[in-house]
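Z., the sequence and structure:
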Amino acid sequence: MTDREIAQAIRRADADALRHQLEDSKIVLCEAGIALHRRYGWGSKRIGDFIDVVQEVEDECSADPRRSMIQILDEETGIEIKPDADGPGWRDLAFLNADVEYQFKSIPEYRCMRSRQIRWIKPTFYALVFVALHRKCGWGAERMRRLLADMQGLGIRSSKQARKLYKQEIGVALEVRQE
């Protein structure tokens, strides 16, 4: 492969991961809003303010690129989120744990890593929501576990479906700061 072909392959893999990231972020924020509304009676203003808090926490946590959001949640609350209950945890994966050293040897290996990362995007956004609830609202692990079950129980599969249900339940459209 030429250097140009390598760069194109990396850009395609990165673009696919970004598309999933945008989709999953909307799904998780809608799930959180709906679950907080249903279980705790949060209204549209409080949910909107909380989404702003989630974005502030994301900025805070992004300042340390050596720690993943999933790692931060585990360290601060003892909650470990994984895509599969019996699958590997964040400690086992180089892209979620800066202490694991790894160099890619080929483009297929890089694409494989990116496809594996995609499975971790939604759990990463769950972790972000829970770090925000823990840091800014004082929530404990058991309360967050109940909310996670509520969120996952919604069965939302697309951001379009999520935004529609969010608007029906909350009464306003989801608003997320664009970077």
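The CA atoms of residues 156 and 162 lie 6 Å apart. Helices lie at 3-40, 44-62, 69-77, 107-137, 141-153, 159-170.

Let me know what you think.
H.
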